[in-house]
Amino acid sequence: MVKLIPLPVECTIRSGFFKLPNVVRIYSDSDLCGAKSVLKSILEKIDGVRCEDALDSGSSHVAFCYDRELSNERYILDITENKVIINASGFSGAFYATQTLRQLFESDSQSPLNNIQCAHILDYPRYEWRSIMLDESRHFFGKDVVKQLLDLLAMHKMNVFHWHLSDNEGWRVEIKKYPKLIEIGSKRRGTHFMAWGNRKDSAVDWTPYSGHYTQEEIKEIVQYAAERNIMVVPEIDMPAHFGAVLAAYPELGCRGVKIEVPIMHGGEKNGPADLIACAGNSDTYKFIYDVIDELAELFPAPYFHIGGDEAPKKEWKNCPKCQKVINDNKLKDEEELQGYFNNKIALYLKTKGKRLIGWNEILKSTSIDKDAIAQYWTLFRDKNAERWLVTNGRIIASKHQAFYFDMPYAVRNLKTTYKFEPSQYKIKDPNGGILGVEGTLWTEWISTKERLFFQLFPRLEAISEVAWTPREKRNYADFRSRLKSFIKLLSSMNIRPAPLEIVDTGFLRSVKIGKIFHLNDAHIEYKSALSLNADSETP
Ligand code: ACM
Ligand code: ZN
User: Fold this and answer.
1) Which residue, 49, 98, 158, 521, shows the most beta carbons closer than 10 Å to its own?
2) Whose atoms come closest to the Cα of 334: which ligand?
3) Ligand 2 mean position to 335 CA, how many Å?
4) For ligand 1, is residue 309 a contact (CB within 6 Å)?
């Protein structure tokens, strides 16, 4: 019967069914009214169903009851033949109960129409950070797609949306004090569309590319996310991946040279090698503080992501201003200069009530602020992580072999995502120092919504279970069996997930894997899967 994803902590099936009446009377204690509205909008999508407020629990079909004993994200859902009762202590838990009910009503169950099996469910998440990152620098999707993504994250009980709003290839958020970020930084002459190794002009689509969010749109999206219990954390990548800023304000680079917004993708090794903010120029810090000032007004989250990844040090080595900071502050080298840079930003963020998050390169400096959070995308178990965790540092797990969802399934299969165990460290914290997990959607080679969702589904289902379900309850075979009906649910919402036939089988084993990157394979995989999708009964 119950094909829930993520699998709840405890679910006891009882005999009988709750039949949804045509007019559903819903009661809510005052603290949980927000969730009542959410449930109304879910139920009223069902043909012939309408909701009314009930004045007390006794006369209702569905009741939201305040229970202060339950922690914030926890809920208890009691489904009996006469009534559905939801216990929670606040919006988060009550909201998750509505998402469970949504899956029960909408999934392809064996029960008669609008009937759900009686059950008792006790549920709460394993990790507090359950996130997906979207890169809108390389490709820009716009607010309708972001809202749809937020709806889907909420359905999977994910609670953080990490928004990569700047990178070399484009700046995507209006900053009133620096209009050239949009006038210049959000536009590029073309887009490189082949693997990193192929840098010929024939690998570039010369259609001009642009896109950005106004501050009003950002507010709208942040509010939309909050209504779905999702916190939005912006990322402004610095000091590297800073090409779009340097195109707009070249004076913030070490040599002040004028550049175009780059069209080529790639990190430190594969991309333009010297795009970095000058860490010895006070104007750089002023710029960043000003940007933080404006973004802090838009994003209430107590976190701010500064990137910090793949910072090439060539410019800093040759820059008198950067070298002066190293000498004046007795820093060992350019790596420690990045630590100095990061700590200045961390301190400024604290004045705004925000904690710094950075990719795990921030741990290369031993002096990094202890409140920072490291998002691990590389090796995962390395010396820096061990050192960080024994001093109570916190980590978000995004290991690329498991959680880089831009990768082809043939290279990063679904099973690897599902089976990834984040808590790998022997330290006292029950979660092993892991704040949570995050899947990333880098978009160098993802230019459409359809492709984005193909890469994300059914990986979102897998990561949601890593993030939510107790470790001992995770079972891949059981997950795959639940996934079948879940994919039908997604299809009914016009989401075309990658077909289950390809997500694990090594579908592309016969296709030569590119030497530097598997992009060409990814395109082939996508096209082949689309035709598979067209042939199969689930479109
Ligand atoms: C990264 O993939 N450069 C965080
Ligand atoms: Zn410099």
Assistant:
1) 158
2) 2
3) 13
4) yes
Q: Confidence class of residue 339 from pLDDT cuts 50, 70 and 90? A: very high
Q: What is the pLDDT of residue 509?
A: 45
User: Whose structure tokens read 């405890």?
Assistant: 10
Ramachandran category for residue 300: left, alpha or beta (phi over 0 → left; psi -120 to 50 → alpha): alpha
Mean residue pLDDT of the chain comes to: 90
Q: Kindly report the CA angle at 354 between 162 and 298, in degrees rounded to 5?
A: 60
- Say which residue, 306 or 539, is predicted with more confidence: 306
d(CA 258, CA 237): 20
Q: Which of 309, 361, 404, 517 to mutate to test the pocket of ligand 1 (most atoms within 8 A of CB)?
A: 309
Domain 10-123 indexed as CATH 3.30.379.10: yes
Distance 169 CA to ligand 2 centre (A): 21
Render pLDDT for 146-171 as a digit per residue (tens, 0 to 9): 999 999 999 999 999 999 999 999 99
234 or 267: which leads in pLDDT: 234
**What residue's CA is closest to ligand 1, atom 2?**
377
Does the CB atom of residue 405 touch ligand 1 within 6 A?
Answer: no
135 lines ligand 1 (CB under 6 A): no
Helical (H) or strand (E) element with 223: helix 215-226
Element containing residue 465 per DSSP (H, E): helix 459-468
Kindly give the distance from the C-alpha atom of residue 276 to the centroid of ligand 2, in angstroms, as a whole number.
8
CATH classification number, 129-533, choose in 3.20.20.80, 3.40.50.300, 3.40.50.10140, 2.30.130.10:
3.20.20.80
Sequential DSSP letters for 382-424: SHHHHHHHHTT-EEEE--HHHHBTTS-TTTS-HHHHHH--S--
Q: Cβ(403) to ligand 1 under 6 A? A: no
Q: Pick from 168, 310, 185, 316: which is nearest to 242 by CA?
A: 168
Question: CATH 3.30.379.10 region(s) of the chain?
Answer: 10-123
- Does ligand 1 have an atom closer than 6 angstroms to the CB of 359? yes
Ligand nearest the Cα atom of residue 265 = 1
Ligand 1 contact, 310 CB (< 6 A) = yes
Least Cα distance to 136 among 220, 209, 229, 208 occurs for: 209
Helices and strands in the chain, H and E counts: 17, 21
Distance 162 CA to ligand 2 centre (A): 29
237 within 8 A of 100, measured Cβ to Cβ: no
Of 292 and 431, more confident: 292
